Amino acid sequence: MLFDPINIEGLSIPNRFVRSATHEWLAEEDGTPTAAIGDIYEELAKNEVGLIVTGYSYVNPAGKSDGLQQGIYDDRFIGPYRKIVERVHSYESKIVLQIVHGGRQSMAQHGYPLLAPSAVEDSSTGKLPRAMTEDEILETIDDFVNATRRAMEAGFDGVQLHCAHGFLLSSFISPYTNRREDKWGGSVENRTRIITEIVRRIREDVSSDFPVMAKLNATDGFDIYSGHISLDAPECVEIAAHLEKAGVCAIEVSGGIVEAGSVMSQPGVDTEEKEAYFRRYAKMIKDTVSIPIILVGGIRTRAIMDEVLRVYADMVSMSRPFISEPDIVKKLEQGAEGARCVSCNRCFDKSGIRCNYDFAL
Question: Where are the transmembrane segments (predicted)?
C-alpha cells in the first residue's frame, strides 16, 4: 500500500508518503519564501515524496512564532511561492501550504500583542497572552481565508490548517488554553468553532473544492498526573468529526505543546515499540470519520509503515527522516528496511535545517 496512489478530494497523490510540515529557518526576515526553501521541496519531489506539506506560514505578522519563518499575510508572497510550486510540479508530487497563527507561542515582536483564546500563562516562557476580543477572532478568520486565496493563486494543491502543537487554532480546541465562556469556548463544538468558521468561509469565499486539510492535536501531551484539564481522547475524536462535517478533507494526527515537553518530536526512537507514538489516537479518529487520516510521529521502519496503513491511517507522514534522507522513499521502494534517522533532533538548526548527526561515529 505504501506505493499505491490515493485520491483526496480530487487531488491524486502518487503514493502514501507525506513530508510533514517542517520549519526550515530559510525565509527572508519578512517571511518571503526563498529559492533555498524551493531547493528542499524540489529535492523531495524529485525523490518521489507523494505529498509535501510546507513549513508553517504565518497568516498575520502578529502570528509569527520563529525567526526566518515563511509568511503568507500579503499578496506580494504569491509570486515567490508560485516559483516554488512550479518546481515541485515538474514532478508527480503534490504540495500544500501549511498556514498558521502562532497565538500565545508567537514572538510578540514589534509591538504586536500576544493573543490567545484566554489569558493563560505559558509556563515554559512565563509569558502571559491577552484574551482575544470577538473582533480579533473574526479578523483572524479573515486572515486564514485570505491566506488560502493566496495559496490557491500561487498554484498550491491545497492548504493545511495548523491546529496542533499549541499554536492559535490548537489553543482554541484545548480546554487547557481555552477557558472562554462565550460561543468560542466551553463545549467541544464551541472550541472548534474558529476552525469550522475558517473552513466555511474558505468554501464560500475562495473555492468550494480547493482541498483544505488539518493538522490536528489529538493530545496536549500532559502526563495524566499533571492535574491539567487538557485535550485528549475522546474529545479529539469529536473535534475530528466536526472538522469533517465542516469540509476538511484529510486530517494529520499529531500531538503535544511546548509546555508538555518533547511530545511532538520525541528523541531516541530506536525500537519499533517507540515508533508511531500517536497511533492509538489515529485509530480512534479513523474509526469515526470517513476522510483520509495521516499519521505523523516517530515512524522509521518499513514494518511499522506497513502496519500503520493496515490499521491506523491512510498515509505515513515523516519530518526528520526526510531531513536526513530526502531519497528515503526510493530507498524503501528498492528494499530498504527503514530510515537511518536516529531522532537526535539536532536537525532543527536555526541556521537552516540539515542533518547534523555524524553517521561515521
Answer: none
